[in-house]
Every structure is written in C-alpha cells, then in structure tokens.
Amino acid sequence: MDVFNLFKKEACDIRGKFGSDKWTWKEYFDYKKELESEWKQVVLVDMIGQPVEWAISISNELFFSNQYPEGTVFVLYCHSGGSSGYVQKQLKPNLPHYTIINMDGGIGAYRMYKLNN
Questions:
Q1: What one-character DSSP code corresponds to residue 93?
Q2: What's the rounded mean pLDDT across residues 35-45?
Q3: Is-contact 47 83, C-beta < 8 A?
Q4: Can you give the pLDDT at residue 4?
Q5: What is the predicted pLDDT for the residue at 102?
Q6: Which phi and psi (to 5°) does residue 40 adopt?
Q7: 102: Cβ contacts below 8 Å, ≥ 6 apart
Q8: What pLDDT is stored for residue 57 in this prediction?
Q9: Which of 52, 69, 106, 110 is an S-S bond match for 80, by CB 3.0 to 4.6 Å?
C-alpha cells in the first residue's frame, strides 16, 4: 500500500469527514500528555506540508517500516479533517497494531486553537 495514493495534498476530500475516530486539537494535547505518561508514543502526522509543533510529514515509512512500536497512536491532519479521515479509514484495517486518529478541523482548527490558548 502506498499512502500517497490515498489523497492529494492540495485537495480537501469530504469522504472522510464523517464516521471517523477524531480528536479536536484540545483533545490531542490532553490525550497526548496522558498517553505519553503511560509510555505510549503519539505521532502527529502532517499530510499537507504545513507542519505544526511536533508534526512529522506523512510517509510510507511512518506506517510500514516497523520503526514505531505496537500501540503507537498516529494523529493525522490535513486542511479540514476530510482527507485525513479518509486516509485513516483506509489505514486502520491494514494496521490493526496502531491507533489511527483523524484531527477534526485540520490545520484551520489548529490556528484557531492557538489563537485562543
């Protein structure tokens, strides 16, 4: 599977907007702290080339090279949460040893979160 065949960086795909496991940015920061205190790794994945603090650019190696331990939580973000939700739905059945979360609202919601916090 090639993760880059599942989305286009410049597009916002509404197919994934509904029915995905998703977090808000506030939930991300709260859950990240909680999960890391339990020694679980949380990886914020930038799908659009607009990195925020701690984000790693999406790549096949992230998911398919076994560089992350079982139980790692990958949190995907795009422009609005649509494309990342779609990619999440494609990856979950193929990577049951990881938790894959969609970031609700994408990069725009992050900017609003940062303005208010």
A1: G
A2: 94
A3: yes
A4: 73
A5: 93
A6: -100, 140
A7: 16, 20, 21, 22, 23, 75, 76, 77, 81, 84, 85, 88
A8: 95
A9: 106
What SS3 class is residue 87? helix
Amino acid found at 66: N
How many residues are given for the chain?
Answer: 117
Strand, helix or coil for residue 83: helix
Sheet holding 55-57, edge to edge: 22-23, 99-103, 73-77, 42-46, 55-57
Q: Which residues of 39-66 are buried (b: 16+ CB within 10 A; e: fewer)?
A: eeebbbbbbbeeeeeebeebeeebbeee
Query: Hey, what are 89's tokens?
Result: 């739905």
Fill in the amino acid letter for 95: L
Tokens of 22: 């998703």
Q: Is the pTM of this model over 0.85?
A: no
Q: For residue 59, is pLDDT > 90?
A: yes
